[in-house]
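PROTEIN DESIGN WORKSHEET
SECTION A - STRUCTURE
LENGTH: 364
TOKENS:
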């Protein structure tokens, strides 16, 4: 049986940030709290969101349980009744975590998919997502990934976590630096690739995934080379949105391996870019038809070779070793990857030993 849901209200265009006050009014949010990060503050984008009841401006690069709890204190002290997440996937996931704990008793670990008996997630405080990067897809994602105090990654997953409304304004990405444009763009590309060949049946999501890959393949380099290119920015924000719209089809080994590495503070999109060629080769015999279609969509003969070449062109790291990962870290990382829920939809079943081999290949 195929279960298909789509998804949230999305306003997409240059200048769409101007719709935020009306959206909040429609949602009945009178006392919103802004959730963002220091990079967005430094870029001067906070003022674009308008007046908020309260603000949490210290979202870390990978959202943590401590940061969620600190933001929750600000939310409660301000008497807030909804959240505006302005930033990348970290700010959006953190806002989802605050909305969850503001509405439910318990800790984040209680609601994670790997909990012994995960608590059900009901309606949460409303979240409006305003992405300032083009990559994570968190603005339409039903998951919040938070690093717990013990170092584990809690993936809280529920349709209730999908933001109530989304504002995709490509103008907010014009100041994004080239390296971050490249890394977040590769994140979007990895979403399209992995969801297209996942084991779940969802033809609408597969069609969107194929368009995501073709769009990112055509426009990412141009967006990196000229951040002021408005057409490239529009196209990459659409590719990112499409990548998020495919999540319900499932992802795979790239994300399963990336999640435990994220606990080291490493950037998620960069990790996906580095891991992708090794996973593509690992899966090759189990996803040959899908990979052939994806290769044709980007005008390539071999998908893994094309991704490696794209990483070089974007000046991304050549391997995990360059990112500071040590050989001694790999066995524990591999065990965590094999236990990650996203491994279940990888086209080729992968054991901890398989993940260790993938990670060794990706070391560079």
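SECTION B - SEQUENCE
RESIDUE ASSIGNMENT:
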């Amino acid at each position: 049986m195929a279960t298909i849901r789509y998804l949230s209200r999305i306003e997409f265009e240059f200048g769409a940030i101007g719709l935020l006050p009306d959206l909040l009014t429609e949602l009945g949010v009178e006392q919103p709290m802004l959730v963002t990060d220091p990079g967005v503050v430094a870029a001067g984008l906070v003022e674009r969101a308008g007046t908020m009841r309260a603000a949490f401006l210290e979202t870390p690069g990978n959202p943590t349980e401590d940061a969620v709890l600190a933001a929750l204190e600000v939310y409660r002290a301000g008497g807030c009744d909804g959240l505006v997440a302005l930033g990348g996937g970290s700010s959006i996931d953190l806002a989802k975590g605050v909305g969850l704990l503001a509405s439910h008793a318990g800790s984040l670990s209680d609601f994670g998919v790997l909990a012994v008996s995960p608590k059900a997630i009901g309606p949460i405080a409303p979240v409006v997502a305003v992405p300032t990067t083009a990559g994570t897809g968190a603005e339409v994602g039903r998951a919040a990934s938070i690093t717990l105090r013990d170092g584990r990654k809690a993936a809280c997953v529920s349709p209730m976590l999908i933001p109530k409304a989304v504002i995709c304004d490509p103008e907010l990405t014009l100041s994004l630096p080239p390296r971050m444009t490249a890394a977040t763009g590769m994140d979007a590309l990895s979403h399209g690739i992995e969801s297209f060949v996942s084991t779940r049946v969802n033809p609408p999501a597969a069609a969107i995934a194929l368009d995501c890959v073709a769009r990112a393949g055509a426009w990412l380099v141009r967006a990196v080379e000229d951040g002021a290119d408005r057409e490239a920015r529009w196209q990459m924000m659409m590719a990112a949105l499409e990548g998020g719209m495919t999540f319900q089809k499932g992802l795979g080994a790239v994300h399963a391996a990336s999640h435990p590495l994220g606990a080291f503070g490493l950037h998620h999109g960069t990790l996906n870019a580095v891991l992708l060629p090794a996973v593509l080769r690992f899966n090759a015999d189990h996803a040959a038809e899908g990979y052939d279609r994806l290769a044709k969509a980007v005008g390539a003969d071999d998908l893994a070779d094309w991704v490696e070449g794209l990483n070089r062109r974007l000046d991304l790291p050549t391997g995990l070793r360059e990112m500071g990962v040590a050989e001694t870290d790999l066995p524990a990382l591999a065990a965590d990857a094999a236990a990650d829920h996203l491994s279940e939809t990888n086209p080729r079943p992968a054991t901890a030993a398989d993940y260790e081999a993938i990670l060794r290949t990706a070391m560079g």
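SECTION C - NOTES
The beta strands are 9-12, 32-35, 54-56, 82-87, 127-131, 143-147, 153-157, 165-168.
The radius of gyration is 19 Å.
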